[in-house]
Amino acid sequence: MRFKPVTSIQSKDMNAEILAVGSEMLTPDRVDTNSLFLTDQLNQIGVEVVAKHVVGDDRDRLATAMRLAMGASQFLLISGGLGPTEDDLTRDALAAALGRPLIFNAEISEGIEERFRRMKRVMPEINKRQAMVIEGAEILSNDRGTAPGQWIAGEDCTVMMLPGPPHELKLMFTRECMPRLRAMVPPLAIRTKVFRISGMSESDLDQTIAPIYKKYENPATTVLAHNGDLQVHLRARCTSESEAEALLAEVGDQIDAALGERIYSRNSDPLEVIIGRKLKATGATLAVAESATGGGLAERITSVPGSSEYFVGGFITYTRRMKTECVGVPEALLAAHGAVSKEVAEAMAAGARERAGVTWAVSITGNAGPTADGDEAPVGSVFIGIAGPEFLGSYHRIWPSSDRPRVRAFAAQMALDMLNRELGN
Amino acid sequence: MRFKPVTSIQSKDMNAEILAVGSEMLTPDRVDTNSLFLTDQLNQIGVEVVAKHVVGDDRDRLATAMRLAMGASQFLLISGGLGPTEDDLTRDALAAALGRPLIFNAEISEGIEERFRRMKRVMPEINKRQAMVIEGAEILSNDRGTAPGQWIAGEDCTVMMLPGPPHELKLMFTRECMPRLRAMVPPLAIRTKVFRISGMSESDLDQTIAPIYKKYENPATTVLAHNGDLQVHLRARCTSESEAEALLAEVGDQIDAALGERIYSRNSDPLEVIIGRKLKATGATLAVAESATGGGLAERITSVPGSSEYFVGGFITYTRRMKTECVGVPEALLAAHGAVSKEVAEAMAAGARERAGVTWAVSITGNAGPTADGDEAPVGSVFIGIAGPEFLGSYHRIWPSSDRPRVRAFAAQMALDMLNRELGN
Question: With an 8 Å Cβ cutoff, are B64 and A68 in contact?
């Protein structure tokens, strides 16, 4: 196979790459979450992440990856592989990639010994490996673990060696690296705007707003979708705050006009927070009656700190008997329409409202699958009931899915969306 | 900065690298989940993933990353960047990295046009980009989208170009790539074993079993922790099934002996599945009464398909009044001990058991934070109550955390763990 040499790489300025080290990060179960935190931090000061890598415990592969990243980007952030064992190769690999020696640092070694003494243990000999420092590196202190980090200012690239455990990495990066980085990068004003949208599909959303956001490189636009909840993130990077705000307003206003009332939040608040705020503002209270979602709706409502100010509780009426006894759904109604029906959804909501003595009640009944149940309601068929002051209504939707967790999550999202619409502005 | 050239790379055989393409994959909100699916599939046939990369929409960076991976590994799997726009650079970058031309394929173009016709639309001219094929590539058909994949058998490396949307990638990889890969790699027997553990910390678990698993490179051992639920995964790769089984048994038996009854599952079943199986086997039924977790416990129980066979329902008693009215907790008990107390936890469980007419009932009351509530129970303090035939008991635990979602998830996990222990074997 012939390789065509790649001769030009775009400007390195204000660009960063992130390298996670460790074979354990290459299993089907593990995700490198450190890079998400680091990306968020870097973006806040205007540094863009242009590539991320995960490389196993292999010295030569690591050194090659480091060498390439250092040649292509201004910053390289490395996480993990700083432990005391032979598998921990980050120090060795980076020394090789830089062509600099590792030097034993007695002070670090004493610090690690002291840490072991405080835990009434003797430092194993192998931990001395953690005191090996790359020539010319600055030490980054680690208050939450034994491995110190290292900051290496090269001519073309600044390299940060950080520990793998997230709570160690976060503290070290925030305390030790961010101040140094802020001093290196030109001050940039970064402003973000988030829209949250419900009641449309991701592809409909994208088709509606792509003609707007595609015209702009700045702000950068990201569309996120998760179980029926859609988000549009705009991020503007400018030299002044006013310029960034103006850009956000220019694009944001167009998106706002295109989506209209499908937008339920113009900051990052989720539905359960918005509903909570509306209920608190009017001194109203809320209860639920859930069948198909089995507690998932109440779980979302109570995920909000302080939700006990307006959320009274609820009834998980998984059987017909519980529907009758707990929220007073007449047996005849169940027999006539089946448990998955608009009549039962409305009776559940009305019953929950009365029994719990609240202003508003929301109910969910449906078949979340994966197989049709005795009621013979099709899989994915869900009814939402809403009872409020002078209001009783229901909504029906069939999701073309036998994916139980997905149907349940979509149903809870729809219930919150419907309640939010009824609560008004 | 001087670079020391890296001269030796370990054997490429049976090694793969994965490259996800797209600047949108480099935001703080996005994780490359395709690579987890691909890793699992590759591991099943004995191919190890030695590195993963995410690179933005930059032709030169992409080509460099591809070139390096092709030189270092036998397989390169690329996902994304196959769309019709100018940002979709995977085809161009790979052609450059391989030094092969792109050739227009009329058949593919007609297929895409036909796809548009079926949707009553006319194919935009830019979609013709999706019909550009690398010289010598085999086409991988895409039943779920417009972009076909490509399979390029090079001398040193086999490259797969796959679409980014997970549902397109999964079907294409399973149908088109796996059969070709199976024909290329020597048959290996891969056997896995999973232990699930509750009631100890991740570091205690690792300290207990590391002396065992560290002795073995094969099987490979991974320890996973998520909200109080711990898993140990063993994976043996051998030339014969019997050898793989023997290795798993050798290591698995030692881990089993070291952990004893802390293991609740010797396959991958979670607590809610194991509890469901035990309840069904004896024809027993279950209900819950939840305060702090607000429905999260019932949500987990009902996540199991068929849980309606034993789960009757529950009461989300978020206020004192709901505790009294729904599950009959005496007002005097609440006044004397506070809502977060062992007395109230037991009364909630006993009341739920009676009102729902079930064999077993589990209750949770606690303060999930982030701030202490009116009851002045400390944040992180949780009581679990269990009521069963001739049994009434409670458990208390304080988590040193004001992280509301974490406290709630830990509380639900502990409630299931305690119930599982009471249900016996």
Answer: yes
